[in-house]
Amino acid sequence: MPSEPKPRLLIIGGPTGAGKSAIAVEAARLLDGEIVSADSVQVYRHCDIGSAKPDVEMRRAVPHHLIDVVEPDQPFTLADFRAAAADAIDGIVARGKTPIICGGTGLYIKALLEGLRGGAQSDPEMREELLRMPLPRLYARLQTLDPARAAMLHPNDRHRILRGIENALLPKDDALPAFPAYDFVFFIITAPRGIIYQRIEERVDAMLTRGLVDETKALLARYAADCKPLMSVGYRQAALHLRGALDMARLPAEIKKATRHYAKRQITWFSAVRGGIWINADTLKTGGAAAFIADYFKGLLE
Question: How many CA atoms does the CB half-sphere of 230 hold within 13 Å?
Fold first, then answer.
């Protein structure tokens, strides 16, 4: 008997500030689709402003999945994303809709498409021992075990430091079952770097106007300062400000600088995607880019 056809996915990735979300919503309208977020901060509840979650209008226009999935102090791994995204895709396909994966967390997308294992499985006894260690000692230990990984991390990023140590010490689990494969087309939204940086400037200013500092203050009142979303760009700088380590005059510039660096890393990651179709959003604008994507995707189905 012939095998079941694989679900066909539309992937829309790219750096922050490129305009992915608006293009994905417009493409979803054209393709009768639903969006699965591939963003490592939008999965957390109460982290709205700092993660630039799609606004209420966008989410009313098109169903979104994997937004507001877990509490900020709950773990959410690559394996968790992979399983949750697969469930969402199954539901979208069952409804006769087009699954559209949209986001800038490249490893999430890679985990979904390639069945990435997500590193070593955590050992509860080791994790408990590591959690009792002061953060400077943890970071020093990672510097000894994996200097290259340590150099990529902020010394206060407890979650990623812990995972780095575990990945260095624990065996990888290669016995996990193979993950379902998909047929997909991968679009990468970009723009001239100057345009992306300008949008980053505008986005950060808008976040601060909307209340990023107050949102961070509310999160710190409920959750530990080193929980994963509070270590992300924007929240980390706002938390430093609230602790008196960064004055308000410097806060916008520090967030903008960190966001530019993050965008550079995203561009580097997406540049390595094989078969990715690059779209200059500054040239096509939102409507034109979405129409091009929708027409291309429809052509694959004919």
Answer: 26
